[in-house]
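Mods, move this if it's the wrong board.
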Amino acid sequence: MGRPYYDANGVTLYLGDCADIEVPHDLLLTDPPYGQEFKSGKSHDLWGWIHGDDDMDGMHARLAHALKSLRRGRHVYIFGKLIDLTKLPLCAPAELIWDKGMIGMGDLTSPWGPQHENITFAVYELSKANRAKGYGNLAARLRKGSVLRSIRANSGSVCHHPMEKPVDILRQMIESSSVMYETVYDPFAGSGSTLIAAAIEGRKAIGVEIEERYCEAAARRFEAELPTLASFQVFESVNR
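Not the wrong board. Structure tokens:
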């Protein structure tokens, strides 16, 4: 697996390809490349190209690899609507909507501007026969509505990653689908928002990011959030 790029306060981040790493975990929560060959036009191409954003087959293969280490019958959340569930051992899917609280750019010729993003919820079930039988109706720890509201930072405030997600919306999903001290895994960690959310919720957080620039950004964020994440150290010290 190699040495972690960052490892402190219950948060572990690896630099590398998630296809080469196996992480036993209780909840998979991730925002994979969207398959849209993203390239930012902001500030003279501040962000540049996102690695893997032109490889949907590779993305599905990496998600399938990550699922092998997820506990059977546990929950999965994947941002974006391009995921093909037929390629993955998932069942009982539900479509969640992230209400961003502001109108995005989108097609400026349309009278309707995009204000939401899709999130796929599903349950990991390894057996194809069981999936066909309708297994996977595991209840969430906290049952909530399918619309999650969280204001997305505007373009001027996004400073860590072009697809940066608000920590509070990630906390909602983590709280609903895991309990204290379980492990949350993000195989496409970006700048670490999922890991920060997991640590705040008292979960162990593990992520993998293939681009070093975003590992650096995530490590800086973790250091800045140490006063918040330090609460996890209490658990570690008590259980040693």
